[in-house]
Amino acid sequence: MTNTPGNESPGSSSDSHEPDDGQSRWSARQPPPAQGWARWAAPPGSQRPQNDGPRWGNGVTPPPPGAWPQNSWTRPPAPKPGVIPLRPLAIGEILDGAIATLRRHWRAILGAAFAISLVTEGVSVVVQRLFVDNNTRIENLRDNPNPSVSDILHSLSGPAAASGLLGLVSTVGTFLATAMVALITSRSVLGRTVTAREALAELRPRLPKLIGMIALVLLAFCGVLGASALPGGLIALAGAETAGGALMTLGLLGGMVTVVWLWIQWSLAAPALVLEKQEPVAALKRSAKLVHGAWWRILGIQFVVVLLAAIVGVIVEMPFSLIGSAVTGDEFTSLWGSGSDVGWTYLIINGVGQLLAATLTLPVTAGVVSLLYMDQRIRRESLDIDLARAAQHPANSAG
After folding, report:
1. pLDDT at 67 over 80
2. Where are the domains of the chain?
3. Which one-letter DSSP state was computed for residue 132?
4. Rounded to the nearest 10 degrees, how much is the dihedral formed by the CA atoms of 81, 84, 89, 94?
5. What is the DSSP string of 22-41?
6. 393 torsion bin: left (phi>0), alpha (psi -120 to 50), beta (else)
7. How far apart are CA 375 and CA 90, in angstroms?
8. Looking at the predicted structure, is the pLDDT value of residue 376 above 50?
9. Angle at Cα 128 formed by Cα 168 and Cα 309, nearest 5°?
10. Does residue 39 have a pLDDT over 50?
11. Rounded-to-integer distance, Cα 174 and Cα 32, Å
């Protein structure tokens, strides 16, 4: 079959009239490179670049770093209408974004953090006072050279109960602060401002569902810890105190690991509930879906941030603790052992330091969780495209 012009087969060429003796090769029919090693020739009809100088190779030294010409292959920087660039974030960018949000909206954020911390630290002072005032069981345990399993469990039940109560109160405060800061952060990412009154007005309709979600989380935590300690407790009550106590200890350790796993799984639930207007159970499922596949990364980021917040908290609290000791002569080490029977004066002075520390650190940790939520949505759902569009068109929603 002969090929006519305009009806050439894909494998034909303009020189198909030349006989193919089998010796020719495809590479022999291609044009030779112009300069440098295997340089591609410009396509037909295109213009040769103006900076068509010697190429790297063929004895030509490449230019130093930073001297490469800007061309069409250079990736443009991500847009940054607010506190973060709209792309997947590194841990430093997440922390910088949380601090930048605090600087831009410090009145609204610090006011909410102070109100939440005032309640949580007030409960902490009361629990510490009630525990220290009535606790002599640990001192008696230290004086007992051969304590039984029941003596040990009886002695540790008070500190364990007090620590658990403080943990529950801290969980409530963390979820509330994260929900409030998430609303402010969602505006700060777009480069917009929001007042405390506006944020509270937007949070108020979601507050009952937020409280319901917090109640579900607390019930789940208590259920996990109770179920983990139940087998050992039943065995101890049946008479095998040593075996029951050991099994209860192992069960509680496993329960604490499970609680930490659930905490990371549900750590993004508060932003999902207030920003996506999810129901309580749906918000928990939404958080688990966003965390899936990135559990260790989210754990690592939150651990680093909590560690930094703890260091800052100790620095802020230490002067108040020293002042309280100098004024009253009391000293309080922890719920699990105190050097003396401390009074209200010392606990209140020390509580003021704890209040200031929590007011400063709680907004940063809550802001990190809010930005982790957005970062996961950017990585999974290309939220950065929606955010960039919303930044250009204020009428659009960023959720």
Report:
1. no
2. 91-392
3. H
4. -170
5. S---TGGGSPPPSSSTTPPP
6. beta
7. 9
8. yes
9. 60
10. no
11. 68
User: Which distant-in-sequence residues (6+ apart) come within 8 Å of 242 by Cβ?
Assistant: 149
> Is residue 354 within 8 Å of 121, Cβ to Cβ?
yes
Q: What does the alpha-carbon distance between residue 104 and residue 264 come to, in Å, rounded to a whole number?
A: 28
Distance CA 54, CA 336 (A): 75
Residues 6+ apart with CB under 8 A from 237: 244
Q: What are the C-alpha distances in Å from 264 to residues 52, 269, 296, 297?
A: 55, 10, 9, 10
Beta-carbon count within 10 A of 45 CB: 5
Query: Angle at which helices 241-265 and 280-291 pack, to 10 degrees?
Result: 90
- d(C-alpha 274, C-alpha 98), whole Å: 18
- The residue with tokens 């209860």 is 248
332 close to 342: Cβ distance less than 8 angstroms: yes
Let me know the angle formed at the C-alpha of 27 by 23 and 28, rounded to the nearest 5 degrees. Answer: 55
- For residue 239, give the amino acid letter: G
Model-level pTM greater than 0.85?
Answer: no
Per-residue pLDDT reduced to its tens digit, 145-156? 666 666 666 666
Tokens of 288: 């688990």
Residues sharing a CB contact under 8 Å with residue 297, sequence separation 6 or more, in sequence order: none
Residue with tokens 């603790």: 321
- Per the CB < 8 A criterion, the answer to whether 75 and 341 are in contact is no
Nearest to 301 by CA among 214, 375, 380, 378: 375
> Using CA atoms, how far apart are residues 274 and 206, in angstroms rounded to an integer?
6
Nearest partner of 166 among 136, 133, 129, judged by Cα: 129
Cβ atoms 230, 244 nearer than 8 A: no
The per-residue pLDDT for range 156-198, each reduced to its tens digit, is: 666 777 778 888 899 999 999 999 999 999 999 999 988 889 9
| Sequential DSSP letters for 278-305 | --HHHHHHHHHHHHTT-HHHHHHHHHHH
Count CB atoms within 10 A of the CB of residue 235.
Answer: 18
- d(Cα 42, Cα 177) in Å, to the nearest integer? 60
Is 312 in contact with 361 (CB distance < 8 Å)? yes
Question: What is the distance between the alpha carbons of residues 194 and 203, in angstroms, rounded to a whole number?
Answer: 13
- Model pLDDT for residues 327-362, shown as the tens digit of each residue: 887 666 555 554 456 778 888 998 999 999 999 999
